[in-house]
Write a structure and sequence with these properties.
By secondary structure, the chain is an alpha/beta fold. It has one domain: Purple Acid Phosphatase, chain A, domain 2, CATH 3.60.21. It has 6 helices and 9 strands; from the N terminus they run βααβαβααββββββα. The chain has a 5-stranded mixed sheet. A 4-stranded mixed sheet has the order 5-6-7-8, covered by helices on one side. A hairpin with a 2-residue loop joins strand 5 and strand 6. It starts with 6 loop residues before the first strand and ends in a 12-residue tail after the last helix. The model has no long low-confidence stretch (mean pLDDT 91). Bound molecules: fe (ii) ion.
């Protein structure tokens, strides 16, 4: 069967970070091992080895050796955007070798509903960005939006895509995600944070 390349996006997996279970009560697991296995299982169910995954940071909170054991089990080609918990892992060459690219910020483009769209990726959320009123998306992590507990003001086409933004604590498939973001664009009142004209 022919497989079409899919792009997935995820953030803030916080593998092996025991305290994340109390910080994010939606991660309803008895042990951190059960938490890790759940996320790894969902990842590998969705992602095939030809697929591309953007991880927007805070991969894990453990020693690099354990992080390597985890990343080796995850399907797909991977690109990492650095989060504030990734510094130790990023000093380890073996860990880094599992990613095709590592950066603090990345601009990508994709075709969506017949148009070419631009997407800005960063671990941390932006308040204003180039093209924000002309259809450019901004996807980020870091804030752990848990059922609306931690929320930024609504700005069109900006979304926290971390595992806490989903009920299943899984990854987003990029096309499915952009579709969700567009639904929010039309349904929620928006804050316009700068003077640039909206089109
Ligand atoms: Fe973070």
């Amino acid at each position: 069967m022919e497989h079409t390349l899919k792009v997935h996006i995820v953030s803030d997996t916080h593998f092996s970070h025991t305290n994340i279970l109390s910080y994010c009560p939606n991660r309803n697991f008895k042990t951190i091992e059960a938490h890790d296995e759940h996320i790894i299982g969902l990842w590998n169910e969705k992602v095939s080895n030809d697929d591309l995954v953007y991880h927007l940071g805070d991969f894990s909170f453990c020693n690099p050796q354990k992080s390597i054991e985890i990343v080796e089990r995850l399907n797909g080609r991977k690109i990492l955007i650095q989060g504030n918990h990734d510094h130790k892992n990023l000093k380890n060459a073996d860990f880094c070798s599992h990613f095709e690219k590592i950066d603090k910020y990345l601009e990508i483009s994709t075709s969506f509903q017949g148009n070419k769209v631009k997407i800005l990726l960063c671990h941390f959320p932006f308040e204003s960005w180039e093209g924000m009123n002309r259809g450019t998306y901004h996807l980020h992590g870091h804030i752990h939006s848990v059922h609306g507990t931690f929320k930024l003001s609504h700005i069109k086409r900006r979304k926290d895509i971390g595992v806490d933004s989903r009920e299943d604590c899984g990854l987003w498939e990029l096309q499915e995600l952009l579709f969700e973001v567009e639904k929010e664009v039309s349904s929620v009142q928006t804050v316009v944070p700068d003077h640039h004209a909206e089109i």
